[in-house]
Amino acid sequence: MKRMRGMKRIGLIVLTVVMIFSVMVGTTACSKKKKNEQTGKEQSDNAELITLDVYSQTANWNGMQTGWYATLLKDKFNVQLNIINDLEGTYETLLEAGDLGDLIVWGDNGTQYKNAIELQLLYPWEEGDLCKTYGPAIWEKAQIALETNRKISGDGNIYGIGHGIASSKEDHQSFFYTWDIRYDLYKQLGYPEVKDLDDYLELMKKMKEICPTDENGNETYAVSLWPDWDGTMVMYVKAFATAYYGYDELAIGLYDPNTGDYYDELMEDGPYLKMLRFFNKLYQNDLLDPDSMTQTYDQMAEKVKAGGTFFSIFNYCGSSAYNTNEHIAANKMMLPLVPKEASPAVYGMSLLGGNRIWSIGANTEYPELCMDILNWLYTPEGAMSVWYGLKDLHWYYDDNGKTAFTELGQACNRDPQYDLGGVEWTSPETGIKYNLGASFTDGMLQLNNTTWVIDAINPESKEPYNKDRWSNMLGIARCDLEQDWFDWTGFDNIQDYMENGNYTIIPGTSYSEPKRSDEMELIWTQVMQAVADKYSWCAVYAKTDAEFDYQVKEMVRTCKQYGYDKILEWSREQAATRYKLQQEEN
């Protein structure tokens, strides 16, 4: 395949300017030369800073990468990243322009990814030995994942690599459906038993009675949602079924990995509609944030940080957001409480890699540089940087070779909003001093994808990348309240608590959704808009049970008119295909 480098760069730059309302101008660095460790090439810092356009379907950020990771990339690669997130119509616009950018992060390995391959918009990783030469950490350590991508891509070529690769075939990853609640309020209420969703609803009512307002004087709610990540279903409602039943999302429904059974989104009394009704019960009891249908992820997160919510099924918008240094010092924390009848999903460790693929654009002027950056992210230090910051500034290896946080790194770990303004970092490669600026979380790599799974073994420390499994972190209570949680649960860390309860492992497979016909794609789009954009939210916001039933009935009627049964048959076939692959590969 002939590479057409740079032919459509102007169109993409114009598009980016329109999308983020700014003109990105390259800047210059110091005049010192440095050697890139991966390529062995010297790169001059007085050269123009290279801007790479990164189209990420998983990013919440739009615009230039900022903060400490921007500093790291500038120092190490002489690049800055212009992130283009997946706003409505972005994919179609980029496709029409014939250029997806320099780097691409795919949300899944299905139709859109395969369309890009057919249109020759992705760079083959074996052309000119690109990956072998410039991506040795990938080529040497992740051959199974690369071959999985070849199989998924379907034309004999490798165009990328999946996320979350395991270093060995262990049992499962760490839990992130952790059912975090305001444990300080739970303790205040006397630790009431929570068996099922009815008990959970009653607990939320009692929490609001004793905590009606947040730290800013605003009304509190059990939970706050956001529509940014809605797809074929409302994301949080679908994920709630995954957290409760252990079923995984598949096409227009949910899939039981234990049996291969398939529950479509419109199935009467099925998991999606059951959870939709639960969220309507929250709304009818004034326990659902009324802004849930219109706010952004960031707006939701600010409410969580201010104590505006009582639970989150996800740790990243529960304990990770709420448990700041100030809250911990005040004995206020979000910690897990899983209903006894719940069986949260946890994803299996897989050498195959996940469905969020890293790719390089076919028209990039810098394929070697793009591969060099991806290779860095697959090294131990690069992987650690994504999660925890800069080596020796935020974390280090102790005298026993085990991973530990520095005092600054611990502060950032406990409070991701920690302000790095005034913090200096001296590059170990160039000796240049930088002022980092911004908060730790704003400075994190905003592409929202991983390379190794966090529970993979770091070959440098011989223990998992996951900080919750570091020997230097186990069993350390950060306050009296956390010690109370240790005593109440009988466990001194979250992962062991989750492991001791019910859970469902979702095995990794090489399954990927095939391309759908044009007719199927039209029906799919119409159904998705009816379910996720309109009727599901109307049902959530129904003021009475009768209104809820009416909205669900209208949703079913409308989708049936569009041809729902055709895509349901296709979805069931995909569930059977996935289950067969799962049985063969695990």
Placed side by side, the strands forming the largest sheet appear as 4-5-3-6-15-7
* CATH fold descriptor of the domain at 9-162 and 357-448: D-Maltodextrin-Binding Protein, domain 2
Which term fits the overall shape?
A: globular
Low-pLDDT stretches are: 1-45
What level of helicity do the residues show? 40-55%
Share in β-strands: 5-15%
- In CATH's first tier, which class of the domain at 9-162 and 357-448 applies? Alpha Beta
- CATH homologous superfamily (4th level) name of the domain at 9-162 and 357-448: Periplasmic binding protein-like II
Q: In words, what does this structure look like?
A:
By secondary structure, the chain is α+β, with helices and mostly antiparallel strands. Helix 21 (518-540) runs antiparallel to helix 22 (545-562). It is 40% helix and 13% strand. The protein is built from 23 helices and 22 strands. The chain has a domain at 9-162 and 357-448: 3-Layer(aba) Sandwich (D-Maltodextrin-Binding Protein, domain 2).
